[in-house]
Amino acid sequence: MLSQFFALHHPNKINISVNEERKLWFKQFIKSFAVVFFVYFGMYLVRNNIKAATPLLVDSGRA
């Protein structure tokens, strides 16, 4: 399912309108933008959680 979602689909028609070409391009752009956004957001959340947990990790290492 995910492989189909991220698969690049090239139009088979040679003579497509500029409007159709823009719609196809925008769909592919939104897919890649969403992936980059969610990966960056996830990294941001993990960074802040590790920063907050550092004192606890240091204290548990000394015990």
Notes on the protein architecture:
The protein is mainly α and 63 residues long. The protein has one domain. It is built from two helices and no strands. The longest helix has 45 residues, at 18-62. The termini are far apart. The mean pLDDT is 84.
Keywords:
transmembrane, transmembrane helix, 63 residues, rod-shaped, mainly alpha, membrane
How would you sum up this structure in a few lines?
The chain has 63 residues and is mainly alpha-helical.
Total number of distinct structural domains: 1
Low-confidence parts: none
Oligomer: single chain
The number of helical segments is: 2
Structural class: mainly alpha
N→C terminal distance: 47 Å
Largest sheet entry: none
Helicity, as a percent range: over 70%
Mean pLDDT: 84
Radius of gyration: 21 Å
The global form is: rod-shaped
Instruction: Please provide the count of β strands.
Output: 0
Describe the secondary structure blueprint for this structure.
Blueprint: H1 2-5, H2 18-62
Organism: Leuconostoc falkenbergense
Keywords: Membrane, Transmembrane, Transmembrane helix
Protein name: Glycerol-3-phosphate transporter
